[in-house]
Amino acid sequence: MMESWVRFSAQSQAKERVFRAAQYACTLLGYTLQRGGARAELLNTIKQLEAHMSLTRKLMRLGNSAEALEAAKRSMHLSDCVLRLCITVAHLNRAMYFACDNVLWAGKTGLLPELDQNKWSQRSFRYYLFALILNLTRDVYEIHLLMERESRSSAAKSVSSSPSPLTPSPEMGGEFPLNPSPSSALSPLPMISAGLNKQLQLLITVLRSNPPLLLDLLKNLCDVFIPLDRLGLYPTGSGFVGACGLTSSVLSILTIVHPWLKLKP
User: Fold this and answer.
1) Which residues lie across from 174 on neighbouring strands?
2) What dihedral do alpha carbons 182, 183, 186, 188 form, nearest 10°?
3) Burial zone of 189 (CB within 10 Å; 0-12 exposed, 13-18 middle, 19+ buried)
4) What is the mean pLDDT of residues 33-52?
5) Is the pLDDT of residue 188 over 90?
6) What is the rounded distance in angstroms from the CA atom of residue 23 to the CA atom of residue 52?
7) Is residue 12 very low, low, confident or very high in pLDDT (cuts 50, 70, 90)?
8) How far, in Å, CA of 171 to CA of 174, rounded?
9) Does the pLDDT of residue 98 top 70, yes or no?
10) Which residue stretches of 76-176 are H helix?
11) How far from 50 is each of 20, 44, 55, CA to CA, in Å?
12) To the nearest whole number, what is the mean pLDDT of the chain?
């Protein structure tokens, strides 16, 4: 029975992501047509289709608050305190976001005709933004841990493969200089540039070797602009929001089609 429920939940999530991709595709299409001077009737049709997609998604997410709470319970047993805090609080914010979304669905369908939809919409996007900020914090923390691990591994390999620093190397011309040159001591910019380049190469190596972390980071970066725009904190316009939503939806669908791309825990 548990396997059947998991399969049903995964199918529902996949359908919701497809509708999400279609919704933001409509947003991007409407912006493009408006910039191209399309007729008002066509623009209204696109907006109505987008609204129907949004309402359908709200219907599909009616049970997601309970799933987010269960995920928060599971994440409380993680051994790493930073991951435990970020993931648990992110799931709790997602649960509140879905709860507000359910109330909005009731208002849009007429079950709560007196509902202040604008206030509840702003409230839901605030919870959504908090969850995304915590997800990004978790991504940055995991990248930091992996970069430290990769740096230690590279240093250990370098020490084991290089000659002792106390032994002059004939290939390098005998003795090593005892003191750095005055020019290198007075010019920190080349050292800073070399350090930044090393960190950038390390970051690229870590992300290339961890596709789930890379996809989660890209998805969260795309998603975060949606509540920022809706709350008026960083307005970007419907075209940019549509492109970000469509991109993050496609990345989410990839993690459903290929489960190994989903970041765990």
Assistant:
1) 169
2) -130
3) exposed
4) 94
5) no
6) 8
7) confident
8) 7
9) yes
10) 81-108, 117-161
11) 10, 10, 9
12) 88
